[in-house]
Design a protein that fits this description.
- By secondary structure, this protein is of the alpha+beta class.
- The chain has a single domain, classed as Heat Shock Protein 90, CATH 3.30.565.
- It is 24% helix and 23% strand.
- The protein has a five-stranded antiparallel beta sheet with strand order 1-2-3-5-4, covered by helices on one side.
- Strand 4 and strand 5 form a beta hairpin.
- Helix 1 packs antiparallel against helix 2 and helix 2 packs antiparallel against helix 3.
- InterPro entries: Anti-sigma-factor_SerPK (IPR050267), HATPase_C_sf (IPR036890), HATPase_dom (IPR003594).
- Keywords: Kinase, Serine/threonine-protein kinase, Transferase.
- Pfam families: HATPase_c_2.
Length: 164
Amino acid sequence: MRTEWLPEGGAGVITSKGASGGVTLPKGVEVACERVHRLPCHRRSAGVARLLLREFLAGLEGGELYVDVGELLLSELVTNAVEHACVSPSIAVQFGVAVGRLRIEVHDASCERPEVRPLRDGDDESGRGLPLVQSLAVAWGCCPRPGGAGKFVWAHVGPAEGAS
């Protein structure tokens, strides 16, 4: 289990809401549960990833508190990877829960970093994914993959509003 949710120093991190990026877990605190899946670089992978996340969260006490926003952000990140970063036949998704947050990672082999662009005309069907991630995630960012080519884009999701 990892005890740090970002490469050392958080190099290359993009974050929203003034957050510093990843969470370094206190000594002795481990990720409660973590799962990794490899998916084909295909437009249907976002739906498969959502199903895998629902199954993962269903097995955790309190997992339902992360489902709605988690599914939306995962879907956006997977869609981004498939549409803009598929230089290999597959991507990887990773989920983990610790310290009251769901962490979602989407790994791909492209070194091209995601870029938040200003929203255009309200009728555009693309370009809304990263602004949604920026708006709904507690924190998010992009880092080079440790020991390999490419990058991973991550997002932290807090429990649903009004949850006790």
